[in-house]
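Appendix C reproduces, verbatim, an entry submitted by the partner laboratory led by Prof. M.T., so that reviewers can inspect both the input and the predicted structure.
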Amino acid sequence: MGPGAGALLLLAAAVLQLTAGAGARSFQVDRANDCFRKDGAPFRYVSGSIHYARVPRPAWRDRLLKMYMSGLNAVQVYVPWNYHEPLPGLYDFTGDRDLWSFLDLTAELGLLVILRPGPYICAEWEMGGLPAWLLWKPDIVLRSSDPAYLRAVDSWLGVLLPRIEPRLYHNGGNIISIQVENEYGSYWACDYDYLRHLLASFRARLGGQVLLFTTDGNSAAELRCGTLQGLYATVDFGPGPNITEAFAPQRLFEPKGPLVNSEYYTGWLDYWGEAHAGSSPAQVAQGLQDMLQLGANVNMYMFQGGTNFGYWSGADYKGRYKPVTTSYDYDAPLSEAGDPTDKLFAIRTVIGKFQPLPEGPMPPATPKYAYGRVPLRKQAELLELLEVLCPAGPIPSRFPLTFEAVKQAHGFVLYRTRLPRDVWDPAPLSAPRHGVCDLGYALLDGVYQGRLERDGQTTLNLTGRAGAALDLLVENMGRINFGANISDFKGLLRNLSLGSTLLSDWLIYPLDVDAAVARGWPQAAPRAESSRARPGPAFYTGAFDTPGIAWDTFVKFPGWSKGQLWINGFNLGRYWPVRGPQQTLFVPGSLLSASAPNNITLLELEGAPPRPFVLFLDRPLLNQTVSPGPGLPPA
């Protein structure tokens, strides 16, 4: 071999080495240069949060495309454990729960993914994403190294993470990083053994290359209990005047490496009984610009909020129980219905100053239609349908049992006992504070008496004969999702008393309303008009046509008090116009039929208007509280 041939071989080897290096996919922290590196080159993500569980599957592509056209190069995605494992060992990744199809769509549209699989996620989601069946063991210590909790977590991670691993960026997928737990520094336990266990579980199932991180509020106290060596520490905060100062706590725990705001708040959530939250587009855009000028990586929470369909909304506890509304609009850049807002265009303008925007127009808002007034008729009172709603029959118990004790996750449980004596003068039916979780609708011999509330009214005055049936329909308004205690048991947690007498000998009916709505129920017998109009829990039905059109719409509840709504068997969520601020529920057009009647089922819990109807509008009403109508209980 001559000297020329040797040089050629060396050159060929060098080219092969460079080619191999260029083909290697990696996403890493570069502490020397305070940045991320993707495939060896400096990289910064501008991301937005979207929750597939809050968006109907037919709308996923529309929402993700609008995010891409806004200039985002990544999306941040929570995985709610309780959405996918409703019972121990029973997994559901089908239909709206098809996480894998959602991730396929993100890849198809050229979006990277920051995945947040929990096991706890907060997200203003029921119990922070933890399954209610964990509370079947009443003394379990959630989010800790309690062996019972860790066994359940490991079982779940053993199902989820192996299916995530091929989708990691270095394996050819689009998932660039994985969060371990969530805002753990805001939880009381401060259990480092728990975090170490999670870190080992994630590493064992995902390998050593994937970037694992934590997110906490931007205070030293929160970061102290929420971080662990081996997990990159990030912070979250909203718009403010001094962005450098806001990032300072992250620098205490990560002196070198990229600045990361994992939750830059574009708006805020709503609670029943409080004003609709909002924020200034100019202020949100300015905060984003300030962070990008610092070279920070930003995820906007939320970019689209969506809807807490069914029973999935969570609750906070801040001196009192604060349930979250059905709408999770969040005043986000994309509205609850997925429409671009002024805030989106302000954000897009800022992003365009720092990186090229995709060519082409922003997809327009989805069409909306006001289908108008739809009359409803009373189908049956809830007490008449107990055999349909609870086909297995009641559970007898000397004293009340919680939802968890009767293995009921969501919705409603009816508690029935009898008056132990004649009550001629009004006697107080009373519950200890936090004895009714969360709302209890009381009936005596089928006549509605009023509502008991977790942090509100805890006493009702009753009169009646010995042996009269006393029913309390208890509603779970959502388990606490954030803060000191998320072991939020539901139902009658303590004994009720009538005057000085402790009530006992209960029949407990766990109600499966959704299954009954799905299969229909026997027609109620004709009743007198006075009976038809009386207050208390009852079902109302109706139907409407959408002549050749199945567009998004919003349903309003004039004169109604509180309840749950289904359209074509789909549980749209809770309405509560007398409490507000939300007055309409979002109805995705994908739920509607353009060629057949659309069936409405409404469970009103307190009092219907004299001429019951609902009204379909072409726009939402999210910031209004109305006074209760005549004869209806106060909010």
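The first strand starts at residue 27 and ends at 30. Additional entries are available on request from the coordinating office.
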